[in-house]
Amino acid sequence: MLLKKKRIYAIADELGISSKELIERLAELDYTVSSPLATFTEEEAEAIVEMLQEEKVQTNNIKPSQKDKRSSKTYDKAPEKHNAQQAVHKAKEHTKKHTHENNKTLDQKPEAVETKHTEHKPKQEHHQKNTAKSNTNEHSQNQKSAQKFVEKQQPSSQQEHHGEEQKHNNKGKSKNEEVETEQTEIVQLDETVLVGEFASQIGVPATQVIMSLMKMGIMANINQHIKYETAEKIAFEFDKLVEPLQKEEEKEDVVIKDDLEEDLLPRPPIVTVMGHVDHGKTSLLDAIRNTKVTAGEAGGITQHIGAYEVYVNNKKVVFLDTPGHEAFTQMRMRGAQVTDIAILVVAADDGIKPQTIEAISHAKAAGVPIIVAINKIDKEAANIERVRQELSDNGLLVEEWGGDIIDVPISAKKNQNIDKLLEMILLVAEMEELKANPNRPAVGTVVESNLDKGRGPVATVIVSNGTLKVGDPVIAGTAYGKIRALINDKGKRVKKAPPSTPVEILGLDEVPMAGDRFIVMQSDKAAKAIVEKRRIKSRDERLEASSKITLEDVFDKMQKGEIKELKIVLKADVQGSLEAIKQSLEKVSSEEVKVSVIHGSVGAITDSDVMLASASNAIVIGFNVRPSASVIALSDREQVNIRTYRIIYELIEDIEKAMKGMLDPEFKEVVIGQAEVRQTFKASGIGTIAGSYVVSGKIKRNSSARLIRNGIVIYDGEISSLKRFKDDAKEVAQGFECGITLEKFNDIKEQDVIESYEMQEIER
Prior knowledge:
The chain is 39% helix and 28% strand. It is extended, with a radius of gyration of 40 Å. It has 6 domains: 2-177, no CATH class; 185-244, Arc Repressor Mutant, subunit A; 262-436, Rossmann fold (3-Layer(aba) Sandwich), CATH 3.40.50.300; 443-534, Beta Barrel (Elongation Factor Tu (Ef-tu), domain 3); 562-664, Translation initiation factor IF- 2, domain 3 (Rossmann fold); 668-761, Beta Barrel (Elongation Factor Tu (Ef-tu), domain 3), CATH 2.40.30. A hairpin with a 5-residue loop joins strand 19 (479-487) and strand 20. A 6-stranded mixed sheet has the order 9-10-8-11-12-13, with helices on both faces. A 6-stranded antiparallel β-barrel has the order 15-16-22-19-18-23. It has a 6-stranded antiparallel β-barrel with strand order 28-29-34-31-30-35. By secondary structure, the chain is an alpha+beta fold. Residues 269-417 are annotated as: G-domain. Residues 54-184 are annotated as: Disordered. GTP binds at residues 275-282, 321-325, 375-378.
């Protein structure tokens, strides 16, 4: 987009005067101009040139006596201002009239202008000869200037008609009369731009741009990024026009072809269970699957997405259990994106809660049918009608009240109406007519991912279309690989996974992000090529983000003074929990203290995490993961604070309290010792006995203990018995063997680590 404009210095050259003189003359006409680089539109420029040239001609034709008299008087601004306005008005008139009308108008213009000048020149009537000459010159000059403007505005047919006349006029022009029209190009800039690149785009030396940045309080070199808003201000200083870059919609790097109608076959429904925390989602799934999962989860809260297959009347239904706590917003959103039916669990004694409303929003956004399960109807405080009223207030009108939302009052604890709920799920699934093509390469979604010490990157996926097979080359986000193994929800290896099947896949080269789409490719080569492009793009985005943050944030801190920043190195057991905690920690930030997760990944706490925290003056937070004995020793040497949690509530609350200055811990956890399980024994009436070797510290009987497998906490409870050979022992020191049993826990395996710890009161 090009805009034709003239700068002050170009107009001054045309008039044969200096830029300073022109600025002064314009100031007398109430035109505020600060720099010779200032611009006028062509119409304004021509009007100014025409007016000043008329005045110059008239001034040259006035006798010396008249010039003296005129110079002795105060310079009258009004007539000249009127002339400028009249000239602009004349230019507009030419655009509306035809050529013969223009000629007529041009003949009249000099008289009108001259009349105004003669009003305040009493003696000018005695010099009619001079005036006649002036009129002739004036007419000629006006005709040239106005005719040029008219020809520019006329249609092409009129331009051709006056072509010869235009050529003749051009030949007669002197260099000073040639118009130096500057074409100002509008530069398009991205959200961020390198200083050096920006300077090159606007045609200004990089040193001048850096000086302007310094005046704005930004210290940046040519290899650093600045924001668009900053670049826009600098461009304005240099009289340059910029606008945001209009990005084209990014094309998919993998195009998935649509299936033919005759290839589609019915597939099982994928059902997502949603709702507020502790309203009974996992208990409902337990009742459906007749298994007990809740007891093994910390605080009774589902910590990461589980996908389960259930057969109802010989028909398969896949259930996704999405966590209910608001910290898992992103995870719940992913659950809603891959689901066909959403079951909204609401406690009859508690009603609609903020997380329930949030779940409703996600289900509506995904455009999936909702079935409401009103749970805990066996409780005395249960009020089903109140729940229905609250549902209607939030846009869900149940069938009992004349709406189209199915609701089923249930009791997951006492197995009431569970069969009816399952019938409703099958009914809705039939109405939805869910279909997929099993005879094509698989496509699906990653719902969870983690790094397993023995198996490497593991991703839990749901196949939405096609059939996934062992040996398929697959891409998921920036991860790719050949599938080495498929493991179903029962923990058994399978050779293939048809549509609507949840499986764990092994064989990827890195941990994909939960929510990534996975696609089976034709070959390893094709998969690798696409992933390489994605990784380059991802790396560029990370570099751009880091360069944006580093310099400008540091400067902001310098300007605002001492702003405290709580830096955190975050480790979690699975990707979903990591994302959820990151999001929650960002919300905790305040004006006084900024919470910054400088590094986050899945897996056990390692030496490199401690060294990073030491160098960055950060603390290490582990969620469902533990440091090894060597890592604890390193953290003591480096004086790095490591805090571990199993409940997200506690983690977030501790951070919030610490920021408010309210966190006054009275106790601290002290690790007494660690023992490695060398062999396990089964004993009737006792359970599993862990034959262990104490590798550090000592193991105490009746102390608290946790079982760690591959750096992840599997159990946290008490030591029920400790024996040395056949005798009970109060404690066993480092370097000795012992037998350990854990309170109400028997899933002990070789190579597990049993950690003995106690809570000690902190002296005040």
